[in-house]
């Protein structure tokens, strides 16, 4: 279960917490707990691997292969 309204004082409603682990919701929680700044993004993940899980770091402007038609 995920709790969106945790925190006290100035942190009220700024802390998002997972109150109990459920592998069926891991992809959803990984997305919610992702952090990025417009250039680089990191998706949260557990220490253990689960079927169908995507573990990656994302950097804007990088791709899986080089495009020969573009001068760099």
TrEMBL record:
Domain Glycoside hydrolase family 65 N-terminal: 18-66
Leader sequence segment: none
Any GO BP annotation: carbohydrate metabolic process
A matching Pfam family: Glyco_hydro_65N
InterPro entries: Gal_mutarotase_sf_dom, GH65_N, Glyco_hydro_65_N
MF GO annotations: carbohydrate binding; catalytic activity
Family matches, as SUPFAM superfamilies: Galactose mutarotase-like
Protein name per its UniProtKB record: Glycoside hydrolase family 65 N-terminal domain-containing protein
Organism the protein comes from: Cohnella ginsengisoli
Lineage, top ranks: Bacteria, Bacillati, Bacillota, Bacilli, Bacillales
């Amino acid at each position: 279960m995920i709790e969106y309204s945790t925190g006290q004082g100035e942190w009220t409603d700024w802390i998002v917490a997972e109150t109990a682990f459920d592998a069926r919701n891991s992809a959803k929680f990984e997305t919610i707990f992702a952090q990025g700044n417009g250039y680089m993004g990191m998706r949260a993940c557990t220490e253990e691997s689960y079927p169908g899980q995507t573990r990656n770091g994302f950097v804007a402007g990088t791709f899986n292969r080089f495009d020969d038609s573009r001068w760099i």
